[in-house]
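Notes from the 1:1 (GR / supervisor)

We went over the backlog. Supervisor wanted to see one worked example end to end before approving the batch request, so GR pasted a single chain during the call. The sequence is below; no edits were made to it. Supervisor asked that the structure be written out right there so they could see what the output format looks like.
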Amino acid sequence: MECAQPLRAYNSALRACKRARPPAYRSATTLLQRMRAQEKSDVKPNQRTYHEVIAAYARAHEWRLAERTFEEMKRDPNVGWHETLDKIAAEYENKTNKDDDDREDDEDSYNNSRYSRSGGGGRYGGGGYGERRPFVARDRKGPSNDIVRVYTSLISAYGKGGQWEKALAAFQELENTPGCFCDTGSHNALLSAAVSAAKYPEAAQLFTSMAKNPRVRRNVTTYNSLITSYGKQRKIGDMESIFAQMARNGVFANETTHAVMIAAHGNNTSTGDKDCKRALDLLTRCARNPKLRCSAVVFNSALGACAKQSDHESFNLVLKMMREEGIVPTLITYNTRLMESTARRDWREAARAYKELLLDGLLPDSITFDCLCGIEKLVLARERMEALALEEEDWKGLKIEALEDDPSTMAAKDVAKRDNAHLNSDDEDDEDDEDEDDDLLSRSNPMGELPDLLLDIIRDEALNAKLKNNKGVQTAAYDAYLRVCYADGRFDEVSDAFSRMISEKVPRTVHTYNSLLISFEASCKWREAENAMNLMKKETPEIFPDALTFDALIDVCEEMGQWDRATQYLEDAQNKYGYLGCEDELGVLDLHRVRSAGTAQCVLRWWLRRMRQRALAPMDIQSAGKGTRTLLTGTSKETLPISIRDLPDEISVVTGWGKHSTVYGRSPVKTRVLATMKALNSPFTVPEKNIGSVVAERGAVRSWLVKEELLSLGRFLLGNRDALKRNFNPMSGPRKVTDEDVLSEATTSKPQ
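Structure output shown during the call:
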């Protein structure tokens, strides 16, 4: 890259990567590595460079990459991070010594807020969000501004990744940096992080404290975050109040404001009013305002609101307005159309929408295929649970009382009581619910005539002639057909269509292989699934596996008793591709995003082995050699590797509930977790405060894991050669040699 200012050119290219849709964060990584490898000093990365890269990671929701790059920046000698901070601190001290006459007038109200550090410590330890400092205007182009920008990008990355505590720590670190001030951008990033992490009280408090801070100004981004917060909480009245407050304070609502408001009204079902009057009113207001650019984003929100409210008439009205305004449909537009038509089981309309998607030159994504067939499965599952609500009045002697406000929803204490009784029972009908759901979803012809209509699109000669030079469109037509055939239970047809793609030299995608894998998963064909995975690897780097790829492969191996294979694929997914990393540093296993019961069981087994390693680590350290103890002397708990860190006070497994599960607190993942924990005689129980999880105290878990470690050795000595694997396989250990056999042998044997 030869130009007069190569560093500026590189930074401009990185900015383009950041603003791309989707963000080209891999290209940003490549550019950063190329800059580091340059011998010329005028192309070495600076703070602005790292700001653009971290911002690209933030927009791509890659908070771990952002965190690692931030630490690399601090060590980069070309940036001179610590030298820059020292210089800014010295300049700040010199300037404040000259201007200490006007320190207090503008900050009296701000220092009295609950986030002021002058009050002896804030809510989150070490103070709060505000700190008493002199008001000193900083140079917007100076080095301190670059520091603030980098921190703002890091806070944003943490926020988009749901890492509230990390975002707060980064904000406070910036706040404690002499000469650097948390500006409006950094406050907005922290506010967005609070909303993303569902820290709604903290978001409201931060919004209030910003009004008392003379260094920040609440802009439209600030208000949009608070409106989003109220919308997620279904607090429509408070949301409308903030919307009106914007106008009174002279803050101009943009298209994002209207889109968020419309989406919130679409999600609101508390009143029982199924019309979309307010959403349509906001859409009309935005479209008629000459100062606003009413793009497809706003119309897509309105379409989604009408679809969620099952208002077909209003849905068609929004589509008509969209055409009249000359708005070009996006992929989200077509996804919403597919979701709305399949929910009504209007298969011809769904096929028509998908054909128009292809004619517009758009390529489907995973959400498109979910809208084609995944939504139908959710509808069937919901119907199943509604029927179950009418049939099941008593569960093994436990009277189930429904909530008065919602007859289809059980009280949390009843769900916890039922599940805990299930954990303590002696019966073995653990997976009946899963089997019933599978029978329901595999009933004949659940997708109607949609597979045949999509096959007609593949055979449409006029369409093929028009798009003959676009191989991607032909692949997309096949991908939709494969996925719908899977949802319809036509597993053999999926394999036949895949073979036709190979013979006709139609390019494959990750969606193609995923449809093939999940069909083998449903057919319990683990060898064929493994062969498909090996074939997919041969097409790398053109095709990369995603989370669904590994989920289907792990699930079929786990369910067919290939536990070692399942564990190996799980470790490959975690270490090579970054998928299915469900454990955080606090010992919480989060399974609510795991799709299948078998994969959840495999992840659970992997996590239990890590928990056992941590439970035994203190014993290993105490019995280690003197040299090892010397190395560990004075080492804080936080700096120890997580593999040998002691267990937390409370250990929990999040199984998922609510919209990710069913109204009865049941899901395939939760059912399997309960069954596995029951088979292992674990101390975990379902708490009333969070029925979408199982929890246990540290002492009980440690005692259980240590006992199982000793019992596994006894099983091995009594003839179970697989016991020493100690991998919590469902069919190994106690099912071959019982714990009673081990204990009786230990008590009857005499010491030599």
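Supervisor's comment: Residues 186 and 234 are 27 Å apart (CA to CA).
Batch request approved.
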